């Protein structure tokens, strides 16, 4: 993924623009199981200053992932805007999640990890189909019906039934 390495050593002061089209291949290379496919456009503006660089990202497009409820295809629109600051110093120190100090001897910076992090953190913890205007789930109805059928027919261990009859007196 050499195309994401930005050689900044000979870069003049001022603003420099970069663009990438990212697809499934990008996330396969990093081994992300949550993103099945994607069509993303990444625009990065690098503001090179004397003692630091400010990277401004705009990531737009769509991600295909799997619904956590019905395991069906789930297409999510993406619109991400993030900034990252790179300062020059003596050693590599991560000051915060958005600021890093890198040695002055470095001559390039790989932004692929930043792009991966921004997209991965954009995904919600629970990925499910939305509901329609009537409040009905857009999940695969056949799969949901089968899951409900399995849950109803599942035998409960009788030892757990015995615990239902226990009464706890909290008055002491």
Walk me through what this model shows.
- The protein starts with a strand and ends in a 9-residue tail after the last helix.
- The protein has 172 residues and is of the alpha+beta class.
- The strands form 2 sheets. It has a 6-stranded mixed β-sheet. Strands 1-8 form a two-stranded antiparallel sheet.
- The protein is built from 4 helices and 8 strands.
Mean pLDDT over all positions = 86
Helix content: 10-25%
Q: Helical element count?
A: 4
Total domain units: 1
- Overall 3D form: elongated
Instruction: Give helix and strand order, one letter per element, not per position.
Output: EEHEEEEEEHHH
* Stretches with pLDDT under 50, minimum 5 residues: none
Task: Report the strand count.
Answer: 8
> What about the largest sheet?
6 strands, mixed
Rounded Rg = 24 Å
Q: How much strand?
A: 35-45%
| Major sheet: arrangement of strands | 2-3-4-5-7-6
Distance N terminus to C terminus? 66 Å
Structural class: alpha+beta
């Amino acid at each position: 993924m050499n195309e994401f390495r930005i050689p900044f050593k000979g870069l003049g002061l001022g603003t420099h623009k970069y663009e990438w089209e990212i697809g499934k291949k990008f996330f396969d290379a990093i081994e992300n199981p949550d993103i099945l496919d994607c069509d993303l456009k990444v625009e990065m503006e690098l503001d090179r200053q004397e003692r630091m660089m400010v990277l401004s990202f705009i990531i737009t497009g769509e991600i295909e992932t799997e619904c956590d409820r019905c395991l069906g295809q789930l297409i999510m629109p993406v619109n991400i805007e993030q900034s990252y600051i790179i300062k020059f110093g003596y050693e590599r120190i991560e000051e915060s999640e958005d600021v890093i100090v890198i040695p002055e001897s470095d001559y390039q910076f790989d932004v692929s990890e930043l792009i991966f992090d921004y997209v991965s953190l954009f995904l919600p913890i629970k990925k499910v189909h939305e509901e329609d205007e009537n409040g009905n789930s857009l999940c695969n109805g056949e799969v949901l019906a089968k899951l409900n059928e399995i849950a109803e027919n599942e035998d409960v261990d009788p030892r757990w039934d015995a615990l239902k009859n226990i009464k706890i007196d909290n008055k002491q």
